Amino acid sequence: MPLQLENKRLGTDEKALLIAEVSANHDKDLDQALALVDIAADAGWDCLKLQTYTAESLTVRSEHPSMLIDAVWGKRNLFELYENACMPMEFHKPLFEKARERDLLPFTSIYDPRDLDFIENLGCSIYKIASFEMTFDALLGCVAQTGKPIILSTGMATLPEIEHALEVLDKHGATQVVLLHCCSSYPAPLDQINLNAMTSMGERFEREVGYSDHTVGSIAAISAAAMGAVAIEKHFTNDPNREGPDHRFSATPDIMRDIAQGVADIQVLKGSKEKTTTDAEKVSREKGRRSAFAIRDIPAGHIITEEDFRFIRPNAGISANTPELVIGKTLREAVSEGHPINLSDIAA
Predict the structure, then answer these.
(1) What H or E segment, with its residue span, contains residue 269?
(2) In this structure, which of 77, 111, 143, 257 has its CB flanked by the most CB atoms within 10 Å?
(3) CATH of region 8-270
(4) Cβ(140)–Cβ(129) under 8 Å?
(5) What are the residue ranges spanned by the domains of the chain?
(6) How far apart are CA 337 and CA 345, in angstroms?
(7) Can you tell me the distance from the alpha carbon of 268 to that of 248, in angstroms, rounded to the nearest whole number?
(8) pLDDT (tens digit, 9 = 90+) per residue, 101-122?
(9) Angle of helix 253-270 relative to helix 30-42, nearest 10 degrees?
(10) Fold of the CATH domain 279-345
């Protein structure tokens, strides 16, 4: 059964749910953040996802060498990065409200159990656990106890880690868990995406699976949808040249529209599970299949032999896969050369 999330549906027979990830691209500017809501809605996406954390909820101020990060992130250490990237708590409510006004489902990634009450008060109907937090058992346990569906990202994870996380979630009463395949590299190289792992993960754990995309462009996301992803998540921006840690690898509005159109086209291509002649094929079936045609004038009362007819195109007579209905049968009515032989021409 599909999962009903407010006015959205998530499931194997539904169009892949498109999750537009704001991440740090709010730039601590509410107007910028609200503009991103419009971009996601105008591009045809389904959900707006935020990240709820502070620098203090993720790490501490420290000069230990392990805290140092690559200069590509624009900051010197983890605390400074998260202090710069975290979204002000007061942005959540107006973003949730505007998302719903634009027919987007708003929800957030939670990073600290202490933020659960704050998020619950927003009316969040589904929770996301980020790849970096999937080994934080205390967080998994408290989110599971809400009884709400959970999207669990699996970047960097081994199969035993995924299995352990699911055991923790199930133990604490998780109702439904959707796994997101992910390569936690920013940007992620195409040759390390390995979408086959997404499908095998779903088979192994018997869960619905989706894909969290950190590549540049649209091909990985659209390919994942074609391979059965029930959800696609992607960071997005209005300008990849803006300052900030995430703009450089985030999707532009054009890419967002390309993905939305590609996913919609894939859903049309999937169609129904019934295999039958489609309306578009009817002319081809009539003109391209072989059937019995007389290759000379055949009089009434004649017993038909192989010298009297051929199976040729079009499909206007007795089908080529039932020669026993023609050979050795007696004609009730004469059939002229170049005309089809039908069952109505055969004597009973």
Answers:
(1) helix 253-270
(2) 143
(3) 3.20.20.70
(4) yes
(5) 8-270, 279-345
(6) 14
(7) 32
(8) 999 999 999 999 999 999 999 9
(9) 30
(10) Type Iii Antifreeze Protein Isoform Hplc 12 (3.90.1210)
Element (H, E) at 41: helix 30-42
Whole-number pLDDT of residue 273 = 87
Torsion angle of the four alpha carbons 292, 295, 301, 306, in this order, in degrees rounded to the nearest 10? -70
Residue 1 has pLDDT above 90, yes or no: no
SS3 70: coil
- Total Cβ atoms within 10 A of residue 10: 25
Q: Which amino acid makes up residue 29? A: D
SS3 48: strand
Whether the predicted pLDDT of 63 surpasses 90: yes
CA separation, residue 270 to residues 13, 161, 194, 196, 337 (Å): 9, 33, 22, 19, 44
Residue 303 near residue 332, CB atoms below 8 Å:
no
CA pair distance 26, 14, nearest whole angstrom: 30
- Closest to 246 measured CA to CA, from 74, 58, 99, 117: 74
- The pTM of this model reads 0.90
Which is nearest to 58 in space by CA: 123, 177, 120, 139?
A: 139
The Cα–Cα gap between 134 and 153 comes to: 7
How many CA within 13 A on the CB side of residue 170?
9
Q: Distance of CA 85 to CAs 31, 51, 326, Å?
A: 16, 10, 78
Give one DSSP letter per residue of 90-131, joined into a string: GGHHHHHHHHHHTT-EEEEEE--GGGHHHHHTTT--SEEE-G
Report the Cα 212 to chain-centroid distance in Å.
10
Token duo for residue 222: 């659209």
